């Protein structure tokens, strides 16, 4: 449905994105994830035809366009902006009608009422935008983006302005909407939990490049490098002493990692006895400074993040790290 090919872009001679390639199939939700300023919105704007100067091409269905070639109206794309971009001087009905200027007045009114019903905002039809809650404003923005029955929805940080309760509900609602109408959606966010919970596929952008683009489960379980692993999950980097003790084959350009949730301490003997030297509470886990008690020759301390659940601190304490949970990946 949507294909981004060799997409590169510079602003004021500074390269922002380089050779980006990915596809979005019909019915698929793809999330572009990356830190602030990495170029996520720029990709959405280019897909919508709002950012015309770029290299490479963008294909929607069978139509491939490079810079400047096709007007955005032809692209069958609905764009939901981060700040919703509703017109403050128009009411709800007028905001949605605005997107339907090609229809007759009668058809326009009919379609607006249909959308207001569909998005459960009919009661707010005549309200001004400032009279709506954040969640209601978002529904108006989505109704406006859906007005022309687009094939592709572009969503820029769609949950950023909602509180956590509403965020969860809206996420599920939006996911169902996209699936029900078999749309393709590209969503951008810097929130990894959001990305993991809504997406079929995730692309991670860093240092101008799309580092990895994969199905959500795959990118989470098989990150190609440390940046991605660290971005998507809470991990421990195994200290050198532990790598040696576990006889792991870790090359110069590699690092060994394990998720915090799989980094356990136990009172059962695992042969990796440690002494807790210090601990700091960090909410979901503790940062624990441990010393290898078996190795008297070294005073080296290692930091491990773990919970202290089911641990008797007065007994001998051991690290419990299952080999199959340790990943060796590129630095
Ligand atoms: N029209 C423009 N002219 C010059 N620089 C621009 C323009 N648009 C974007 N940029 C720059 O390109 C970079 C990427 O911006 P973009 O908005 O795509 O990032 P982002 O990943 O969406 O960030 P955020 O998560 O903070 O919204 C930024 O450094 C930004 O300042």
From TrEMBL:
SUPFAM superfamilies: P-loop containing nucleoside triphosphate hydrolases. One of its GO terms (molecular function) is ATP hydrolysis activity. GO terms for cellular component: membrane. Pfam families: ABC_tran. Residues 2-232 form the ABC transporter domain. Keywords: ATP-binding, Cell membrane, Ion transport, Iron, Iron transport, Membrane, Nucleotide-binding, Transport. It comes from the Bacteria. The keyword Cell membrane applies. GO terms for biological process: quaternary ammonium group transport. PANTHER family: SPERMIDINE/PUTRESCINE IMPORT ATP-BINDING PROTEIN POTA, SPERMIDINE_PUTRESCINE IMPORT ATP-BINDING PROTEIN POTA. This is ABC transporter domain-containing protein. It comes from Poseidonibacter parvus.
């Amino acid at each position: 449905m949507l294909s981004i090919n060799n997409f590169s872009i510079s602003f004021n001679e500074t390269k922002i994105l380089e050779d980006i390639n990915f596809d979005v199939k019909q019915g698929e939700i793809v999330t572009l994830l990356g830190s602030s300023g990495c170029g996520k919105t720029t990709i959405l704007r280019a897909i919508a035809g709002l950012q015309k100067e770029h290299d490479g091409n963008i294909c929607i269905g069978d139509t491939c366009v490079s810079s400047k070639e096709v007007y955005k109206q032809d692209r069958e794309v609905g764009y939901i902006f981060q700040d919703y971009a509703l017109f403050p001087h128009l009411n709800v009905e007028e905001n949605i009608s605005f997107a339907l200027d090609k229809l007759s007045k009668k058809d326009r009114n009919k379609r607006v009422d249909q959308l207001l019903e569909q998005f459960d905002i009919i009661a707010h039809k005549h309200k001004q935008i400032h009279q709506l809650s954040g969640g209601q404003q978002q529904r108006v923005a989505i109704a406006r983006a859906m007005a022309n029955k687009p094939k592709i929805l572009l969503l820029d940080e769609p949950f950023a302005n909602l509180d956590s309760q509403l965020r969860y509900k809206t996420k599920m609602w939006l996911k169902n909407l996209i699936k029900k109408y078999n749309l393709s959606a590209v969503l951008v966010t810097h929130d990894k939990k959001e990305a993991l919970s809504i997406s079929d596929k995730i692309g991670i952008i860093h240092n101008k490049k799309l580092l990895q683009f994969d199905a959500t489960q795959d990118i989470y379980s098989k990150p190609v490098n440390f940046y991605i692993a660290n971005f998507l999950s809470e991990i421990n980097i195994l200290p050198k002493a532990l790598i040696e003790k576990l006889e792991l084959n870790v090359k110069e350009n590699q690092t060994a990692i394990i998720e915090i949730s799989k980094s356990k301490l136990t009172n059962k003997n695992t042969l990796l006895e440690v002494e807790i030297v210090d601990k700091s509470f960090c909410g979901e886990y503790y940062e624990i400074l441990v010393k290898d008690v078996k190795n008297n020759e070294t005073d080296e301390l290692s930091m491990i993040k773990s919970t202290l659940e089911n641990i008797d601190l007065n007994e001998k304490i051991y690290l419990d790290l299952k080999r199959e949970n340790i990943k060796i990946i590129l630095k």
